[in-house]
Amino acid sequence: MIAASLLPVDGAQSATRLDSLALCLLVLTGLVALAVMVMMIVFCVRYRAASNASRAGAREKDIGLEIAWTLIPLLLFLGIYVWGAIDYASLYRPDPAATPIFVVAKQWMWKAEHRNGRREVGVLHLPLGRPVRVVLTSQDVIHSFFVPAFRIKQDAVPGRYTAIGFTPSRAGEYQLFCAEFCGTEHAMMTGKIVVMPPAEYARWLAEGPRQPGMAQRGFALFRSYGCSGCHAAGASVHAPILANLLGRRVHLQDGRELTADEAYVRDSILVPRKDVVAGYEPIMPSFAGQIGEEDLLAIIEYIRESGHEQSTERP
Ligand code: HEC
Ligand SMILES: [Cu+2]
């Protein structure tokens, strides 16, 4: 198809879905525009002042017709809205169970860390057919993580986590761009996405340079920063147990309720007064300025993993 050959290949399920939505919208609006144009021209010619076409029997009012041409387009376009909203939610409210991969943007490169501690710069390896969630942040200015082959784009903002979820559906190599002007070498801030079959990806993860797994590093940090003094199971301070926190519903003191994600945990550490958990005193000190981005990510991974150990998911 012409449309298909104009677009980059679809390397992820998100791309296939977005393409069908865009095509559907194009066809629908095209048909509406065409129908209006054709009728306009036909009526202009047929009933022009000089023509003697019969004007008898013209209807002044037709409620049925009016309702039809209001209701049918309304339903069609509301349908498009719902379709778009569902696709949007699957990208920007990704499944908390999807494999997280951490990407830190910085002038002018992309740095990634996988859960076992394998790191890479300028390249991002992903498993084929597995839902992943790229968790982004920036060390300096706003960047934007843009992969045309996946039809995804998400800002990387300093001091905040953003995330985007997708499932790579075709093995191969794709281009990664920065889509937010971020300084003189913005145009050079590109990278390569490599989608490989899960077994190959697992092999790739296990080899090559890496530091201790993120969770393992996070555990050491959790102790050295004194978090365990309050949060460990046997601590004398009344503080929540953090196991299984990620993805859990949290009730806050002010009555709000939210689902704990990376951004929530990050804020709990840096701005503890912002979201105080119901039933606890706001005694947790802020660690803003003390814990670096990469250490924060490691602590979050430790909290996630400590949940898994207690459930029966793992051998
Ligand atoms: C002085 C004791 C104390 C220390 C030290 C402490 N916390 Fe807390 N923390 C608390 C208390 C009490 C709460 C519950 C009240 C609140 O939300 O502020 C809490 C809440 C949290 C929450 C939200 C929990 C939930 O169930 O939603 C997270 C996440 C957290 N702490 C992580 C950490 C990390 C990571 C560290 C170390 C860098 C740390 N805390 C250090 C006492 C502490
Ligand atoms: Cu950039």
What does this entry look like structurally?
This protein has helices at residues 2-6, 13-46, 63-92, 198-206, 214-224, 227-231, 262-270, 293-310; strands spanning 99-106, 109-113, 119-121, 123-127, 132-138, 143-147, 152-156, 162-166, 172-178, 191-196, 249-251, 257-259. It has 315 residues and is of the alpha+beta class. The protein has 2 domains: 1-43 and 67-210, Cupredoxins -  blue copper proteins (Immunoglobulin-like, Sandwich); 214-310, Cytochrome Bc1 Complex, Chain D, domain 2 (Orthogonal Bundle). A hairpin with a 5-residue loop joins strand 11 (249-251) and strand 12. The longest helix has 34 residues, at 13-46. The relative contact order is 0.12. Residues 310-315 have low confidence and may be disordered. The structure holds heme C (HEC) and copper (II) ion. Heme C (HEC) binds at residues 225-227, 229-231, 237, 239-240, 242, 245, 250, 260, 265, 268-269, 272, 276-277, 280-284, 287, 299.
